[in-house]
# Entry
Amino acid sequence: MKTGNQIIFIACLIFLCVPCKTSAQEANFSDADKDFLIRLARNTLTMYLKDGSKLKIDDRKVSENLRVNGACFVTLMKKGTGLRGCIGIFERHLPLYQNVIGRAIAAAVHDSRFPRVRYDELKDIKIEISVLTAPEKILFNSPEDLLEKLRPEKDGVILKTKYGSSTFLPQVWKQLPDKEQFLSYLCRKQRAPGMTWRNNYKNIEVLTYQAIVFGEETYGGIGKAEHGHRKD
# Structure
């Protein structure tokens, strides 16, 4: 039985090189785009945590692909202790690079599970980014049908019930490979009974999405980003 702290860690744990199904935008991602986003997140945190200032970017210096509206998660991992912050956004009202800026700050100072990140911690933190495809609703007529349509290690899952909404990134399948357990933990994440997905399946909504995951090679931002990009 996993503890509550383990569940929190699982919810946002990022593993590189996860197989993923990509949209037209993500399929065009270059290593340069990924390196740009990682440097952007690192510079954003360095400035914001040092004195509260925010990075200003000239749109003309950003590749066209990164100016397309996009969704993402930003995860912060600390040397020796693990997860230090993880916050994402599914809305696509802003260009992807702007959402990376916003989610980097949010992961550092607005994740309610942790105290805000201090400037002097940055040398021990590794940044990882998950770029998300648009969620698509799954149609199913029974709990078994739902289980059949889930794709472990490929699909991130959003579960909506009367209790709220919760999500696990595709990488979480590495820790919760059993489909029933995966859905039960997803229920618990929103404080719903673990079997809500089965017992009340007619009144829930399930959406899936994929992710491209990449991050810093070492803690403190030294070295190039590791590029975890694979297609189905």
Observations:
- Helices lie at 4-12, 24-27, 31-51, 64-67, 96-109, 143-149, 179-189, 196-199.
- The longest strand covers residues 71-78.
- The chain has two domains: 4-133+211-231, 136-209.
